[in-house]
Amino acid sequence: MNLDKATELIKSHEGCRLTAYKDQVGVLTIGYGHTGRDVIEGMTITQELADELLEHDIERTYSMLLHYLPLEISQNERPLNAVLSLVFNIGAGAFAKSTMLKLMNESAPYVDIANEFLRWDKAGGEFNHGLYLRREAEKALFLS
To answer: What does each C-alpha distance from 34 to 37, 93, 115 come to in angstroms?
Structure first.
């Protein structure tokens, strides 16, 4: 499966920072939105490592998604890439409990599923314009 569209979306909306920082909700992050116990305050990485971390994180997210998504979506490249970008950002736990996944599993119309992207435009409970733009891009890819 070609995951280039997801990678493009993630890169363009996450940006790349080679020094660890706290994101909008206080999570230590580095590279293209990489988080985890391996990220420590003051840490710096190379661009090459940032690219490797992104590739690993995308592969991990993709593998996880295959367990959740109905076959129709997991084998359809554009919707899969859109959902992958979303889940990369919101996390598997949030996605597993989402109305979006419920609608997918009910074989709801794609437009109804796509409208669920726009529900994920908040950081720390506050509207975030950057997240809104990302969700619009994901929704457009999902429906393309």
So the answer is: 10, 16, 27
Domain spans of the chain, in order of start: 4-143
Of 92, 30, 102, the residue nearest 61 (C-alpha): 92
* Helices vs. strands in the chain: H and E counts, helices first: 8, 4
CATH of domain 4-143: 1.10.530.40
The per-residue pLDDT for range 53-90, each reduced to its tens digit, is 999 999 999 999 999 999 989 999 999 999 999 999 99
Name residues whose C-beta falls within 8 Å of residue 3's C-beta, 6 or more positions apart in sequence.
58, 62, 80, 81, 84
Alpha-carbon gap, residue 142 to 119, rounded angstroms: 15
Active site residue 48: no
What gap in Å lies between CA 36 and CA 74, rounded to an integer? 26
Of 102, 111, 108, the closest CA to residue 142 belongs to: 111
Of 8, 14, 72, 138, catalytic:
14
Segment 95-135, tens digit of pLDDT: 999 999 999 999 999 999 999 999 999 998 999 999 999 99
